[in-house]
């Protein structure tokens, strides 16, 4: 470890109780996506902690999703910054905390968002504080904390891309895997909202006069699912369907939501071309189909994480734990930084699991060592 890393690690070493207490504070604030007040309340607590250590925090308000927060520790020499990232929203509705607030059982913590990703936010904040206390870095160190990752980062993505463009590195503190690994590659994902229109008719007296939108959609779903190519890392899934009026009316409308996952940015155009051809086909005469794009996440390709992972793995070993890299089909904001060509590493929060469920858990004993390893990795980029 460098001298900076040693000092940062020593600062973090006695802070498990403080980290746990702050994690409990964040978990016990409802902050489901689009709960602007709750998400901003989480941000207020984070801002107060950082500003208490003299770290400046800039707030970019958004009345729909909640503010984006940008914390910055100026570098001694300037140059390209290093980012630590996280999102403050969870998937849980308002009122969840009242039913099941933060709790602990030995080294396990439970509660809404405890792993995904309020535990990661705690790691980010304490890493920033540790590196500042240890004397800071030559380069600017930025903490970027968004409000809407769980719904596709509609307001977060533009800020991430604006701040990350040209950065030296980006570290995203999504939860560490249940295996103890960090994330070195992620799939990208796109949601398409498909609409099919047809012509209504009485299904008994005038069946031939109708054009079934449901029939057309059913035919298209078979071909959309056939685009799945496991060897290429591409999956397609129609997860919801709606349509029709009554059982005795030929359906004049139908809708579906298509989830597309892919492992490389250059796969997406080909997938969309195939989808376009499937939707353009008139499977049932008199019907037509189209779509609107929904959430889009870009993939984190392994080539963008390789160097940072080698550095992190060495820092982890020096800290006292072994770690490997892992691929996941889930999406995250690290794909946006990687797509810019910024070296990016993900899954750097405490070890956790059960995300998005009532059984979500976080290993509290990994808070300090994961923060130490991340601080050491960042310190290793200094100079």
Description:
- A hairpin with a 7-residue loop joins β1 (56-60) and β2 (68-73).
- The protein has a 6-stranded mixed sheet with strand order 1-2-6-3-7-16, with helices on both faces.
- The relative contact order is 0.19.
- The chain folds into 2 domains: 3-187 and 299-380, Aminopeptidase, CATH 3.40.630.10; 188-297, Alpha-Beta Plaits, CATH 3.30.70.
- The mean pLDDT is 97.
- It has helices spanning 3-12, 16-27, 36-51, 96-99, 114-133, 156-164, 213-225, 268-280, 306-319, 334-339, 367-380; strands at 56-60, 68-73, 82-87, 103-105, 108-110, 141-146, 169-172, 182-186, 188-197, 201-202, 235-243, 249-250, 253-262, 288-297, 325-328, 344-345, 352-353, 361-363.
- α1 (3-12) runs antiparallel to α11, α2 (16-27) packs across α5 and α9 (306-319) crosses α11.
- The protein has 383 residues and is an alpha+beta fold.
- Residues 184-285 form the Peptidase M20 dimerisation domain.
- This is Peptidase M20.
- The active site is at 89, 149 (proton acceptor).
- InterPro entries: Bact_exopeptidase_dim_dom (IPR036264), Pept_M20_glutamate_carboxypep (IPR017150), Peptidase_M20 (IPR002933), Peptidase_M20_dimer (IPR011650), Peptidase_M20A (IPR050072).
């Amino acid at each position: 470890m460098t001298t900076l890393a040693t000092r940062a690690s020593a600062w973090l070493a006695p802070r498990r109780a403080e980290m746990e207490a702050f994690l409990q504070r964040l978990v016990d604030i409802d902050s489901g996506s689009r709960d602007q007040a709750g998400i901003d309340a989480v941000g207020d607590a984070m801002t107060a902690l950082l500003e208490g250590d003299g770290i400046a925090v800039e707030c970019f308000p958004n009345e729909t999703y909640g503010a984006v927060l940008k914390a910055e520790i100026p570098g001694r020499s300037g140059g390209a910054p290093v980012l630590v990232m996280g999102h403050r929203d969870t998937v849980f509705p308002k009122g969840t905390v009242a039913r099941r607030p933060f709790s602990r059982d030995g080294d396990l913590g439970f509660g809404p968002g405890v792993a995904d990703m309020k535990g990661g936010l705690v790691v980010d904040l304490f890493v920033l504080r540790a590196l500042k206390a240890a004397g800071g870095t030559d380069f600017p160190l930025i903490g970027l904390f968004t409000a809407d990752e769980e719904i596709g980062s509609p307001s977060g993505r533009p800020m991430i891309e604006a701040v990350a463009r040209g950065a030296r590195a980006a570290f995203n503190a999504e939860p560490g895997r249940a295996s103890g690994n960090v994330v070195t590659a992620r799939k990208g994902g796109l949601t398409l909202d498909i609409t099919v229109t047809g012509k209504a008719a009485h299904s008994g007296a005038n069946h031939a006069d109708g054009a079934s939108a449901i029939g057309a959609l059913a035919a298209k779903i078979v071909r959309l699912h056939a685009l799945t190519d496991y060897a290429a890392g591409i999956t397609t899934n129609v997860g919801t369907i709606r349509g029709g009026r009554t059982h005795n009316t030929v359906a004049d409308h139908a809708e579906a939501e298509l989830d597309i996952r892919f492992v490389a940015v250059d796969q997406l155009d080909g997938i969309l071309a195939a989808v376009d051809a499937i939707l353009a086909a008139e499977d049932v005469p008199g019907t037509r189909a189209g779509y609107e794009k929904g959430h889009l996440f870009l993939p984190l390709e392994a080539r963008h994480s390789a160097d940072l992972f080698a550095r992190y793995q060495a820092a982890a070993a020096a800290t006292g734990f072994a770690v490997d890299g892992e691929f996941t089909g889930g999406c995250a904001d690290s794909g946006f930084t990687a797509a810019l060509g910024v070296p990016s590493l993900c899954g750097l929060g405490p070890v956790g699991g059960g995300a998005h469920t009532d059984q979500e858990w976080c290993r509290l004993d990994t808070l300090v060592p994961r923060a130490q390893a991340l601080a050491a990795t960042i310190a290793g980029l200094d100079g």
